[in-house]
Amino acid sequence: MDEYAWLAAKDDPDTIAYLKAENAFTEATTEHLASLRTALFDETKRRTKETDLSVPTRKGGHWYYTRTVEGQQYGIQCRRAVRDGETEPPSTADGAPLDGEEVLLDGNALAEGHEFFALGTFDISPDGRWLAYSTDFAGDERFTLRVKDLSTGEVLADEVPDTFYGSAWSADGSTLFYLTVDGAWRPYRVWRHTIGTAAADDAVVYEESDERFWIGVELTRSEKFIVIEAHSKVTSEARVIPASNPTGEPAIIAPRRQGVEYTIEHHGHRFLILHNDGAEDFELAYTSADAPGDWATLIPHTPGTRLEGVDAFANHLVVSLRKDGLTGLRVLPVGSTDTYDIDFPEPIYSVGLESNPEYGTSTVRLHYASFVTPDSVYDYDLVTRTMVLRKQKPVLGGFDPAGYEQHRDWALADDGTRVPISLVCRAGTPKDGTAPAVIYGYGSYEASMDPWFSIPRLSLLDRGVIFAVAHIRGGGELGRRWYEEGKLLAKKNTFTDFVACARHLVKAGWTATDRLVARGGSAGGLLMGAVANLAPDAFAGVVAQVPFVDALNSILDPSLPLTVTEWEEWGNPLDDPEVYAYMKSYTPYENVSAVDYPAILAVTSLNDTRVLYHEPAKWIARLRATAPSGEYLLKTEMGAGHGGPSGRYDAWKEEAFVAAWILDRLGRA
User: Fold this and answer.
1) Which residues, including other chains, have CB under 8 Å from residue 665's CB and lie 6 or more apart?
2) pLDDT value at 537 more than 90
3) Tell me, what's the pLDDT at 460?
4) What does the angle CA 206 – CA 208 – CA 210 come to, to the nearest 5 degrees?
5) DSSP per-residue string spanning 126-137
6) Is the pLDDT of residue 472 over 90?
7) Rounded to whole angstroms, how far apart are CA atoms 643 and 118?
8) pLDDT tens-digit map of 540-560
9) From residue 330, how far is each of 154, 269, 321, 354, 476 by CA, in Å?
10) Maximum distance among all Cα pairs of the chain, rounded to whole angstroms
11) Where residue 395 falls among pLDDT bands split at 50, 70, 90?
12) In whole numbers, what is the pLDDT of the chain averaged over residues?
């Protein structure tokens, strides 16, 4: 019997009262940290250039960019016409508006009167006249789609509620394709909307009936095709509609085959196909755009080099890949065999392409960062092979990257597998076990936790805290096999890998058990609950954000959002007794026991549609009842979703709350 099942009744006043009481208890318990929270928030604010301007991106006759303004929570989407002879992106040193600026969408104006605000779709038609955008004011990822005429500033009467992320325009901008979801919040229908008509007249273009699959829709960079892609966790299928004939029937590229994943990109006379058919780490092929059929190989499969994406430009292809735990970019000039990889200087980093909307360009924009290098935007010339830094995220207050150092270490898992760990700390941090540390992990969905720069993290590092990321199995850092060895009936490798990394940090002298806090969110929150059960003695504290801690009960209920689509990740306990027994043996809520747990902070959101709020609420309640000697806190955002507070200042306050709790556990409050 689940004695806390009643907490799932979101509309019950008793549930809301319970969550508010938990918030009050958490606030009272952490009241002594109020001044530290304020200090941490102020440090982030002082280091951040609040009035700023992104590097403008050219599309057609305009430069597009986002501005932020001091004191305002949300970005302002803008554009400015390209001037005669202008080839360099314009900028202003102080982040002020560009001369001749046109405001397309002001998030602050849209958010007025709402506790939460998020954009789902922001999509400008090929001719630059129409803007399709969608808004969410609750955090439940249920968006209302609207269309704005940028030539007049008028928002049309066209309005569609309950849409999903993603949209695509026809070539002439007369037609907009968008997505809606089923009762389990699975995007399953593509609709066609004619501008200036009522939503009631919209037509279903494609409907996905298999509940394992979700769909997406987009316009190719070449603006020649609308692409409808259907994906399950292990299988995919693509259809196309000529963008010049939006009422045409979707044509299939290759019928789905169980276990075969592929994505497509249009390039001239061909479709590029990135696939795993007989290629565990994927290979790149192509087929005719006029009559898709057999696939011809462009880049053959190389075990250990995971191909993750391909971007097509008129005269070049750029392949995003992963090798030896690091991201990379490979360039294929069209009509030449002179393929090359772009080199980057640091031993640990993350690199990837930005949006790059222009098909005919010979220059691509990329994003680069590391633990010690702030987010940097570069333009890379594919012909001359030269790179120009357009902007590095300003870090105010005298930040010097030389004052910090990053390292790569390796732990040995229980089965002998070497697991990479990335670390960052202040330069000269002692490696004698005296330093406090935070170890972060995720380990699901082949998602890789590549190094990222964080201004709020500097406040921890400057207080002597080491920050470590455990690149555990279930993620994708070391290729597809790394993922396969941390899912389904091998899921426990994710948890034992993390514990091995934590114990290695202690053994290697980076920290000590009583100076180590674990942190993770969502599926990483499942990880937090599992390792708290598995090795409660390994940590001084655990932070679990929007944690998937009642995994078995959720996966047993196909009516819940996303459950059926998740069966290929976790297994289907409804039909397979072995899966049921395996999940029951590790899911955190089911395995709470009367042991001495570390202090635990769970953070959730009432309107989260991905991991429902009642999972951490039930978990904390059971911890208190079963192992009452520990400190177990629950903090619920009453007006937010899976990503937490939406405004940047609110997000900083949330991070300051968590960071203050961590520092308190580490004796650095």
Assistant:
1) 517, 540, 541, 599
2) yes
3) 98
4) 165
5) TTS-EEEEEEES
6) yes
7) 10
8) 999 999 999 999 999 999 988
9) 43, 22, 7, 15, 19
10) 73
11) very high
12) 96
| Dist CA 587 CA 579 (whole Å) | 12
CATH fold label, 5-46+397-666: Rossmann fold (3.40.50)
113 conformational bin, left if phi > 0, alpha if psi -120 to 50, beta if neither: left
> Could you report the per-residue pLDDT of 235-274, keeping only the tens digit for each?
999 999 999 999 999 999 999 999 999 999 999 999 999 9
- What does the alpha-carbon distance between residue 511 and residue 438 come to, in Å, rounded to a whole number? 9
User: How far apart are alpha carbons 663 and 280 in whole angstroms?
Assistant: 42
440, two tokens: 């972060």
SS3 content of the chain, % helix, strand, coil (to 5): 25, 35, 40
Distance in angstroms (rounded) separating the CA atoms of residues 649 and 508: 38
Domain range list for the chain: 5-46+397-666, 51-104, 114-260, 291-394
Alpha-carbon gap, residue 454 to 371, rounded angstroms? 8
The CA distance from 536 to 595, in Å, is: 8
CB atoms within 10 A of CB 652: 20
Enter the DSSP assignment of 609.
S
CATH of domain 114-260: 2.130.10.120
Q: Report residue 614 as tokens.
A: 């009642």
Residue 608: which pLDDT band, with cuts at 50, 70 and 90? confident
- Count other C-beta atoms under 10 Å from residue 164's C-beta: 25
Concatenate the DSSP letters of all residues of 271-331 into one string: EEEEE-TT-TT-EEEEEESSS--S-EEEE---TTEEEEEEEE-SSEEEEEEEETTEEEEEE
- Of 548, 541, 567, which Cα lies nearest the Cα of 610? 548
Q: Which amino acid is at 271?
A: F
What's the pLDDT at 146?
97
Give catalytic residue positions: 522, 608, 642
Q: 140: pLDDT confidence band, cut at 50, 70 and 90?
A: very high
Q: State the Cα–Cα distance between residues 433 and 437, nearest whole angstrom.
A: 10
Backbone angles phi, psi at 130, to 5 degrees: -105, 145
